[in-house]
Amino acid sequence: MLSLRTFARAAPRSISRLATASRLQLSAVARTAAWRSAVAPRLAAFTTSTRKNDTQTLIAKLENEYSIEENVPEPEAYSDTLKDFIENSPFELVDKDGSEDVVLTRKFNNETITVRFTTADINEFPEEEQPNPFEDQALEDEFDGQSGGANTKGSVNKGRTSGGNVKVEPEEEGEYDEGQEEGTTFPAHLNITITKDGQKGALVIDALAEHSAIEISNMFYFPDAKMADPKDPQTDFSRRGIYPGPAFGQLDEDLQLLLDEYLAERGVDATLAIFIPEYIDFKEQKEYLRWLKNVKDFVAA
Questions:
Q1: What phi and psi values does residue 97 have, to the nearest 5 degrees?
Q2: Which CATH number fits the domain that encloses residue 221?
Q3: Residue 209 near residue 276, CB atoms below 8 Å
Q4: Domain coverage including residue 254
Q5: For 166-213, how does the pLDDT look when each residue is reduced to its tens digit (9 = 90+)?
Q6: Region annotation Disordered: residue ranges (predicted)?
Q7: Is residue 294 over pLDDT 80?
């Protein structure tokens, strides 16, 4: 669903870019004439009738966009994956309408585990990685002509390195990536907080949910749980000088593995990593519909 909707929204931008490129080929004389024409007085363009027509056109476009997006099934009902997690997971879902932030919380013995994520991650998906109907063939032709290198045809994407490069490995014979037909995945940033009853301290973990796995980026310890989620400038300032610890990838590999298992025991595992990106996709669609309706109602009032 993500890839289809991203494709649909990306296509108009691709057409717009092509049109812009064509306009940039105008000669200097033509551009000057267009500029003079644009700045010339046009009193008729500011009539009330024109404004009303423009407003009605905008309202009609918003209504049309809403009717198209409303046909997507997710806003009407949870998918089986979402429904199963919400009904059977120990986490309680806190999702406020109109907010881009979502919270999952649960108790584990004397601990409280809170996982926060946001729909903003789906909007930050790099535009150059979104499907572009006008560039697919060009990319295929380019890859066909390559010999060797990380992006050579016949290699499989194995994630990204810390420097942002794509790690690839030779494709094994008969290997099939089911995700290729399910749509493009995207990294969802997680903020995980663990506190204990009767204790002041807190653990805060920055992580990514991607490719059905939780990848820890950093782990912090705060002597005061209030520093984990500061509510005032003074608390926020006081946490800045605390030693943050090394980057998670610099820790001993056995220690990394044990910390991964520590989180998995508390439900921060592959099941959560599958749920979160899909829920972000679901919520973003729901919030987009609400946004379209609110804008249309405001314009039409």
A1: -60, 135
A2: 3.10.280.10
A3: yes
A4: 80-122+186-280
A5: 343 444 444 434 444 344 478 999 999 999 999 889 999 999 999 999
A6: 139-182
A7: yes
